[in-house]
Specification:
CATH architecture of the largest domain: 3-Layer(aba) Sandwich
Keywords: DNA-binding, Repressor, Transcription, Transcription regulation
Number of domains: 3
CATH topology of the largest domain: Rossmann fold
Largest sheet: 6 strands, parallel
Radius of gyration: 25 Å
Protein name: Alanine racemase
Number of strands: 12
InterPro entries: HTH_LacI (IPR000843), LacI/GalR-like_sensor (IPR046335), Lambda_DNA-bd_dom_sf (IPR010982), Peripla_BP_I (IPR028082)
Strand order of the largest sheet: 2-1-3-4-5-11
Number of helices: 11
Structural class: alpha/beta
Domain HTH lacI-type: 6-62
Distance between the termini: 76 Å
Helix content: 25-40%
CATH class of the largest domain: Alpha Beta
GO molecular function: DNA-binding transcription factor activity; transcription cis-regulatory region binding
Shape: elongated
CATH superfamily of the largest domain: Response regulator
Strand content: 15-25%
Order of helices and strands: HHHEHEHEEEHEHHEHEHEEHEE
């Protein structure tokens, strides 16, 4: 048969039954009219031919099962995940659909099993999600039916939903410029791998471009940049200490995410300096802890709930192509003031 996809007709032919009878057996709708042996022949034929009911051939509009698969790497156990999933759940419910959620933890074998199980349940489409905004390799099984990538892109150029990280970079820098910071704005969190490898991150390079563009347009540039091996609090702490050892310490810092900012706050406190009187701080993500920091951290929020909702809407609409970019808005708190 080569690589041609097995059809229901192929299965029926091999089992020696009509297409209708084979369909009823496979869909569990056949009464007792066929013998157990005939049932076995149908299932054996389907197995041998690698037959899978064609999800793509059915229009989403027919909504045969009203279920959507939500497959992710590590979304469900992370603090932002709740928002991605909540947005998707809300939109699914509004459209009378149910979400089947599987988390793979990056285990390829389990991912294959989960995807097969979901496709066998005749889902109307799949949302394939990533925790960190990055380029993914989409499992081949998903390419046959409707799929929307959430917080990710793919080499195939599938429909995807992404946060607008470049505009977010402009927003963060603009918040400092608006308060009169100009010549001593530093960046904490440069990272070559995150900035150059799309499979690691799409956010880092985009945020950086936005920051630089906003400063260029204001006729200024970044005063100093500190690289960090990762975007964790301890790296933000070390980077801030590095900046404070210089005689011309910055009046403001842009941290590439909130966790770096937590560490930067700690380093400033240890040095007897205060936010924002001595140094203003702005960052990205709106991690739940950002509002709890004292003073509250001004940060450009990841719109995860809106993104989850958009992914479901695009999947059910069925006409999406290329990226859908969702704006990120500034959560204004008390970490930015005019330079002393």
């Amino acid at each position: 048969m080569g690589h041609k996809r097995a059809t229901l007709a192929d299965v029926a032919r091999r089992a020696g039954l009509s297409k209708t009878a084979a369909s009823m057996v496979l869909n569990g709708r056949e009464g007792t009219r066929l013998s157990a042996e005939a049932h076995q022949r149908v299932f054996a034929a389907a197995e041998e031919l690698g037959y899978r009911p064609n999800v793509a051939a059915r229009s989403l509009r027919t909504r045969k099962t009203a279920t959507i698969a939500f497959v992710s790497d590590i979304v469900a156990t992370t603090r932002f995940a709740g928002d991605l999933i909540r947005g998707a759940l809300d939109a699914a419910r509004e459209h009378d659909h149910v979400l089947l959620i599987a988390e793979t933890q990056g285990d390829v074998a389990f991912e294959q099993y989960a995807i097969d199980a979901m496709l066998d349940r005749q889902v109307d489409g799949v949302i394939y999600a990533a925790m960190a905004t990055r380029r993914l390799t989409v499992p081949p099984a998903l390419l046959a039916g409707p799929v929307v990538l959430l917080n990710a892109t793919s080499p195939e150029g599938l429909p995807c939903v992404l946060p607008d990280d470049e505009r977010a970079g402009r927003t963060a820098a603009g918040a400092l410029l608006d308060k009169g910071h100009r010549d001593r704005i530093a960046i904490i969190g440069r990272n070559r791998l995150k900035e150059t490898d799309p499979e690691v991150s799409l956010a880092a390079g985009a945020r950086l471009r936005g920051i630089h563009d906003a400063l260029d347009e204001a006729g200024t540039s970044v005063h100093r940049e500190v690289s960090c091996p990762d975007w964790l609090p301890e790296h933000g702490y070390a980077a801030m200490r590095t900046l404070l050892r210089r005689p011309d310490r910055p009046t403001a810092v842009v941290c590439m995410n909130d966790r770096l900012a937590f560490g930067a706050y700690q380093a400033l406190a240890d040095a007897g300096l205060s936010v924002p009187q001595d140094v203003s701080v702005v960052s990205f993500d709106d991690d739940p802890i950002a509002a709890w920091l004292r003073p509250g951290l001004s940060t450009v929020a990841l719109p995860h709930e809106t993104m989850g909702r958009r992914a479901v809407e695009l999947l059910l609409d069925g006409r999406a192509a290329g990226p859908t970019v969702v704006p990120m808005s500034l959560r204004r708190r008390r970490s930015i003031a005019s330079p002393a």
